[in-house]
Automatic annotation (TrEMBL):
This is Phosphate transporter ATP-binding protein. Keywords: ATP-binding, Nucleotide-binding, Phosphate transport, Transport. The lineage of its organism: Bacteria, Pseudomonadati, Pseudomonadota, Gammaproteobacteria, Methylococcales. InterPro entries: AAA+_ATPase (IPR003593), ABC_transporter-like_ATP-bd (IPR003439), ABC_transporter-like_CS (IPR017871), P-loop_NTPase (IPR027417), PstB-like (IPR005670). One of its GO terms (cellular component) is membrane. GO terms for molecular function: ATP binding; ATP hydrolysis activity; phosphate transmembrane transporter activity. It comes from Methylocaldum marinum.
């Protein structure tokens, strides 16, 4: 029996789950479901991530379809945030973190030598669990991206870009008369929509969301979920959630991870209601978590 103190005591509590040793190499290493799709906008092949000696992502291959919402689910510590950060090279910022494998975004190898990481992160935006507005006004939070990326030529253009991003994030009506107030003066739910507006202001094609609702009350969370549904008309979204209900509401496909491995991926309805892998089922029925 392998001990995994991070997550659960299998020996005592989960005898009914097949022993993890049963999945030690193959077929544990081969995910159930369709991990590759036609014309993906994100294509990951054989991704491995190490933090020092810790092997956090193990040989994950996974595609994302254009304009879908893909939910990443799984127990704490299974590598969801780590994999998400591979998609816009945010792991580069973590000392000791090594990524290998191929990640293509819209056909380009984002770990290639010629890649401009600032430009990549413009194309692949990110929203974090805890809203993190800059310590500036609401206006300046949103204006920052278009300004540093040279997307606007005049103050009028910038005003238009800020308004458009705030509208897309569903925040304009609530803040249009207080644009000069600090971003931090907003409620948590509004701050999260401000962070989404900030990400949208540079016109990304892909948005990564790491548990975007977990610090919010149900009303704030509901607004973000509605926003995800609207944004999907124009954007591809990869989101991490601990809420299976949320994955069911917002995503078309869902991927289940376990100890750094992709276990199962497929249409959300199928994965959540008729999981094909016993570990997915164990997670969904609350026996892992
Ligand atoms: N900066 C880091 N340095 C060292 N190890 C890390 C670091 N970040 C994550 N890890 C380790 O990598 C593994 C995957 O972590 P990760 O944060 O990606 O999991 P997660 O699925 O997002 O978990 P959670 O649901 O709790 O957010 C864990 O074992 C974690 O301890
Ligand atoms: Mg995480």
């Amino acid at each position: 029996m392998v001990a995994h103190p991070e997550c659960w005591d299998m020996e005592n509590e989960f005898r009914e789950i097949p022993d993890i040793q049963d999945f030690a190499e193959e077929p544990f290493g081969v995910p159930v479901g369709e991990s590759d799709v036609d014309k993906p906008c994100v294509r990951c092949r054989n991704i491995n991530v190490h933090y020092g000696s810790k092997h956090a992502i193990r040989n994950v291959s996974l595609d994302v379809r254009p304009r879908e919402v893909l939910s990443l689910i799984g127990p704490s510590g299974c590598g969801k945030s780590t994999l998400l950060r591979c998609l816009n090279r945010m792991n580069d910022l973590i000392p000791g973190c090594r990524v290998s494998g191929v990640v293509e975004v819209n056909g380009s190898d984002i770990y290639g030598r010629e890649i401009d990481v600032v430009n990549l992160r413009k194309q692949v935006g990110m929203v974090f669990q805890k809203p993190n507005p800059f310590p500036w006004s609401i206006y300046e939070n949103v204006a920052y991206g278009p300004r540093i990326h040279g997307l606007v030529d005049s103050r009028e253009d910038l005003d238009r870009a800020v308004k458009a991003a705030l509208k897309r994030a569903g925040l304009w009506q609530e803040v249009k008369r207080r644009l000069d107030e600090p971003g931090t003066s907003l409620s948590s739910g509004q701050q999260q929509r401000l962070c989404i507006a900030r990400a949208l202001a540079v016109k990304p094609t892909i948005l990564l969301m790491d548990e975007p609702c977990s610090a919010l009350d149900p009303i704030g969370a509901g607004k973000i979920e509605s926003l995800i549904e609207e944004l999907r008309q124009q954007l591809t979204i990869v989101t991490v959630t601990h809420s299976v209900q949320q994955a069911a509401r917002v995503s078309q496909r869902t991927a289940y991870f376990h100890f750094g491995r992709l276990i199962e991926v497929g249409e959300t309805d199928q994965v959540l209601t008729h999981p094909r892998h016993p570990l997915t089922e164990a997670y969904l029925t609350g026996r892992i978590g």
